[in-house]
Amino acid sequence: MYSYRNHIRGIVDEFVSNSMKAKASKIDVSIEVLDDFVTISAKDNGIGIPPEKLEELEEQLMQPRRHELEEYYGSLAGDSSMGRGLTLVGMITDDASIKSTPGVGTEIKVALKLNSSR
């Protein structure tokens, strides 16, 4: 997991930053390592995401992996100056889901394979 530490930190930073922008007063973040996958999830009680915006965010999270640029993108995830953090998260993760209800909050989960043939 050591080589992925920056990726994990960047993803967590991105999730927490987005929750804070959504005016969340409670943010639950979990990281679970199981076999050769790490799952990172965040759930907040922020303002939520309107359905039309949620579709755009889902597309950002489902970016194809960019193996040759993974280290670069991994270091940028969580950098609020980039403005497209979820796109970068999507490029370094293997699976993602996002659920949100306006006025209730958002839950986002990604999985990252730790031992791949890259």
Describe the structure concisely for a colleague.
With 118 residues, this protein is α+β, with helices and mostly antiparallel strands. The chain has helices spanning 5-21, 51-61, 70-76, 85-92; strands at residues 27-34, 37-44, 95-101, 105-113. Strands 1-2-4-3 form a four-stranded antiparallel β-sheet, covered by helices on one side.
Structure description:
The protein has helices at residues 5-21, 51-61, 70-76, 85-92, and strands at residues 27-34, 37-44, 95-101, 105-113. It is an alpha+beta fold and 118 residues long. A four-stranded antiparallel sheet has the order 1-2-4-3, with helices on one face. Strand 1 and strand 2 (37-44) form a beta hairpin.
Core attributes:
globular, alpha+beta, 118 residues
Topology:
Layout: H1 5-21, E1 27-34, E2 37-44, H2 51-61, H3 70-76, H4 85-92, E3 95-101, E4 105-113
Antiparallel strand pairs: 1-2, 2-4, 3-4
Helix pairs in contact: 1-3, 1-4, 2-4, 3-4
Strand numbers in spatial order across the main sheet: 1-2-4-3
Please tell me the overall pLDDT: 81
Categorize the overall geometry.
Answer: globular
CATH topology: Heat Shock Protein 90
Total DSSP E strands = 4
Percent in helix: 25-40%
